[in-house]
Amino acid sequence: MPERILGISCFFHDAAACLVEDGRIVAAAQEERFTRRKHDARFPRNAINYCLEEGRCQEEDLSLVAYYEKPGLVLDRILRTGLGDQPHQVLERLQRLGINWGATKLALDRWLERTLAGFRGEVLFPEHHLSHAASAFFPSPFAEAAVLTVDGVGEWATAATFRGSGNHLELLGEMRYPHSLGLFYSAFTYFTGFKVNSGEYKFMGLAPYGEPRYYRLLRDQVIQLNPDGTVHLNLEYFDFLTGRRMTSPALERLLDGPPRRPESRITRREMDIAASVQKITEEALLAMAAHLRRQTGIPYLCLAGGVALNCVANGKLLASGLFRDLWIQPAASDAGGAVGAALAAWHIFRDRPRRPQRPDAMSAALLGPAYSPQEIRDFLDLYGLPYHQLPPEELAAAVVEEILQGRVVALFQGRMEFGPRALGNRSILADPRRPEMQSKVNLKVKFRESFRPFAPVVLREEVARWFELDHDSPYMLLVAPVRPEHRRPCPPLEGEDLIRQVNQVRSTIPAVTHVDYSARIQTVHPDRHPLLHRILRLFQRRTGVPVLLNTSFNLRGEPIVCSPMDAYQCMMRTEIDRLFLENILVRREEQPPWSEEGDWRDEFALD
Predict the structure, then answer these.
(1) Weakly modelled stretches of the chain, pLDDT under 50
(2) Tens digits of per-residue pLDDT, 223-242?
(3) Which of 100, 108, 466, 475 places its Cα 20 to 30 Å from the Cα of 564?
(4) Residue-range domains of the chain with CATH
(5) In terms of pTM, does the model score above 0.70?
(6) 249 CB-near residues (< 8 Å, 6+ apart)
(7) Residue 132 catalytic?
């Protein structure tokens, strides 16, 4: 019988589960995709059930369950950092985290007994940053690599460095709480009016609109950057240790006023703060990587932890030439901890050998549920929803024709992506040559801030002709500039009108070109994404451009769609024009009138 290991992460944010069979990742999914609650942190019952079903595995077939951190050490940190408070204040801190410690983290075995009634195996608790490191190194294509993990905090560590070799990970060093590059970035995400643990993408996207005029002030007063990349925070300016906010009134005095209220107008101050903090973050990551390169002498680097999702910094790290190659875990935040915990259990605790795979062992991050055309037809027929079935060989051409007509197309095919990015299986696609597409998709489809950039998806064999990058970027985790020959000069604009800046035509692919001529690139290889590759190739034949706009198939504040029902609902609540469910075309204008209240979805709602 194969040995099956279940990895779990939960009770903070981005709960997830992963099933590993004899060292191979069989399935992985975030709980949010099933409950439709974004960043759902609850115990991942639905994700576990999916993984077991996908692996044709019963609870009693599991030999081991691995949880992605040590709960006792997390509680130790919270209690020790709160010892200066009154006891009731410490209790309030635990309650604010949304965690009932006695019934969750410190009693995980009882949760498992209720959820996995037949499980009789061992439960392991790898440390948080070891889980991150395992998620980065073990699926990577490298036999040996330097490994860097950076996030807000896990137990006591806020960053860690490792040497990965074979099936081993050797801890080389740690940065310790409360000094944290991730918490530094999240604190200013909060200060500029975005939500911690989800708004960091917005903060990163805002940075190119500003100038780093606060850089020197922050370096002098707020954060000390050491030669090895570790940071030391001046805690006078932060309130995350014992308070209810990320920052303190001292930071308000330093930065010309209080934090921006969420959803209020973004001013030049917020743009410049974002530019300054992004610059510091990039410098710190580059310094950490340089120190690790000197320490190990290894020319390959693996990255994980929430800060590894900062694709601007990743792009600069690659361009620096410090390492010959790098690989970043596509689910780099806590969700990926489920993968890392399971792989750590297999390779480290079970001492099983590892055989690196090319391009990696993540199966293109396509590890979630899939739905057959028959299941999709059954859903549409059940509710009398009009659709058109296409011959499979005509699907790519049909998608391209709709995009050429200026329509916004949603593509639902194959297994759902694991991690925060849609990579072609749960994606919204549009024509990047149309200047209006960035604002249209932001405001009328995603219902999000107009300044946020979209990613280009490009044929791998064409990427170097369009961008200053000649490297695989399959998980949309690298930013690089558009090549000069495709750019168009833009006069500088004064003032704080982001809409005017967004609508400037900066290149021949303006809908995916950010204000600084950068782009967050996804490369497509035919072996891993055959349909998307065909779509891009056909679009290139018709237009000369091997690039499309790709964004995740979801609304602002909601998870990426998982099921055909989720996909249909998302289309009807937006101005998506066409939905392709495998080889089934759904036209929005042919559908019955949509109502948000009292419709057929209610009976299927999850608790």
Answers:
(1) 598-607
(2) 999 999 999 999 999 998 87
(3) 475
(4) 4-131+333-365 (3.30.420.40), 148-328 (3.30.420.40), 373-604 (3.90.870.20)
(5) yes
(6) none
(7) no
